[in-house]
Amino acid sequence: MGSMLMRGARLVGRDGVWDVRVSRGVIRGIDARIRPERGEETLDLAGRWLIPGLWDAHVHLMQWAQVARRFDVSPATSAAEAAELVRRYVAQHPERDGVLVGFGYRAATWPDQPSTEMLDQAAPGRAVVLVSGDLHSGWFSTPALHAFERQPDPSGLVREEDFLTVASALDGGSDLQRDAWVREAAAEAATRGLVGVVDFESDDPRRWATRMTAAEAVEDRPEGWAPYPLRVRAAVWPDHLEDVLAAGLRGRSPLGNALDGRGHPMARLATLKVLSDGALNTRTAYCHDPYPGGGFGGLNYQLAELVELMNRALEADLSCSIHAIGDAAAEQALRAFEATGATGSIEHAQLLSWEDIPRMAALGITASVQPAHLLDDRDVADALWPGRGDRAFPLASLVAAGVPLIFGSDAPVSPLDPWLQISAAVTRTGDERAAWGPEQRLGGEVALAAATGRGVRPRVGGRADLAILDVDPLAAPPGTRVAGTLIAGEWTHRAMD
Fold it and tell me: Last residue of a domain, which of 418, 435, 455?
């Protein structure tokens, strides 16, 4: 890898333009004027913005790749309307065979209840599965129930673990086909300035070894081919933990042979993922106060079980990422962090008790949040968490207390778009309505820092994982595509001369 001098870069929070030198995957210099070295590539940014590359701290990358191949049922406002969307889709696509998979329904506020019979009538004899927008449930037709050996619960849905164990297998395809879908999704993510993701798929994380090695071993590489478009930090779920550790892997262990410019593998084992409770839309998020009509949600692990898992992760130098959407689940997660001394994050942290926010700060536990969820869950939260909206997505309170904050998308629950997350955190509205909980809005620089995980400006000595923008990153709208993305100084996306 050679040296590159980027001239005329604008930096967040600094006046004027700056030169930035990148060599051997590292930022070597930032100054108002740097003299080119002999043979050094020079790139004129012409006043474009240069920022650290963005990270998505919570992705289900395979399921995000699969969503592009599923039909959209998100507009449905009732079970009957969702079934009608299925009927129309089948009529318009008679050539489709195999399992028909739709995505995006949100049943929490529907006036009617889903049933297997509804799908059977909409698509007679067809295996149909509709995946909920929060990924925590599926609505199955009778042939689909038989194909995947599932049974619905009284809600008419297959929920939580019963659903999650088959979620990534719904769309079929060979491993090679699915790996190709993931690489396409990764390349698209690079166009938005993303340089890395934390992947929370429930599959064995060692799958990344095959996925990346196959991608890097391409012969007769086509024009425009680039190294794997993202760094990946992969989670391991409890079902795979002992097998992964028995293979000799520990925290930060490499998961493949695909090397970046500095000789470090692009995929590493990162964290233990524990799904401690459910989700808001399925009323399974575990809360201190009851839902309207009764019930507090539920726990997937009791405290002693959670502590045992986290201690095992600690032995293997793994951080712990504890999914906790309800406030009672978050409280239990903090008790487990206190008991074990483990490091890591509370994933989602959508509803917190006020007293638990300073506890998080004292423990050094990161809040890994998905701000775009507040756009989707605003009305549902008001309906299912009445009187608790001031504690929902308390982003500014977390920052004020000193809790480390990182952003993700939870794609495909929300799009793999860091600019949408930043916008949601800053505005707290996605439509013409006023901000929901305006006191919890973040400033632009704080939100951008949470999306990069490394601040808002490149720094000397840091990795040359960078994004180049034509627009001010503090004002970039959702859907922004960047002019260029580099990992270790190598282009993963380039849309500029």
Answer: 455
State both tokens at 185.
């999704």
In degrees, to the nearest 5, what angle opens at C-alpha 389 toward C-alphas 384 and 395?
A: 125
Residue 264 pLDDT > 50, yes or no? Answer: no
Q: What whole-number distance in Å separates Cα of residue 199 and Cα of residue 282? A: 23
pLDDT band at 213 (very low <50, low <70, confident <90, very high): low
Instruction: Tell me whether residue 481 is in a domain.
Output: no
Half-sphere exposure of 471 (CA within 13 A, CB side): 13
- Per the structure block, which two tokens stand in for 491? 């282009």
pLDDT in the model for residue 64: 95
34 inside domain: no
Tokens for 151, please give them: 């049974």
Can you read off the two tokens belonging to residue 265? 């593998």
* Cα dist from 373 to 71, 196, 377, 407, 421, whole Å: 21, 20, 6, 11, 9
Of 6, 28, 17, which Cα lies nearest the Cα of 462?
A: 28
Phi then psi for residue 277, to 5 deg, are -140, -165
Q: Is 282:105 a contact under the CB 8 Å cutoff?
A: no
3-9: strand order across its sheet = 26-31, 18-23, 3-9, 41-44
Crossing angle for the helix pair 207-216 and 175-190, to the nearest 10 degrees: 70
Contact in structure between 84 and 122 (CB atoms under 8 Å): yes
188 three-state secondary structure:
helix
The CATH number of residue 95's host domain is 3.10.310.70
pLDDT in tens, 456-486: 999 999 999 999 999 999 999 999 999 999 9
Tokens linked to 472: 């001010």
Q: What is the dihedral of CA 433, 72, 284, 451, to 10 degrees?
A: -60
From the list 87, 126, 134, the residue with the least C-alpha distance to 107 is 134
Average pLDDT over residues 110-122: 96
* Parent domain of 97: 70-169
DSSP letter for each residue of 55-101: EEEEE-HHHHHHHTTSEE-TT-SSHHHHHHHHHHHHHH-TT--S-EE
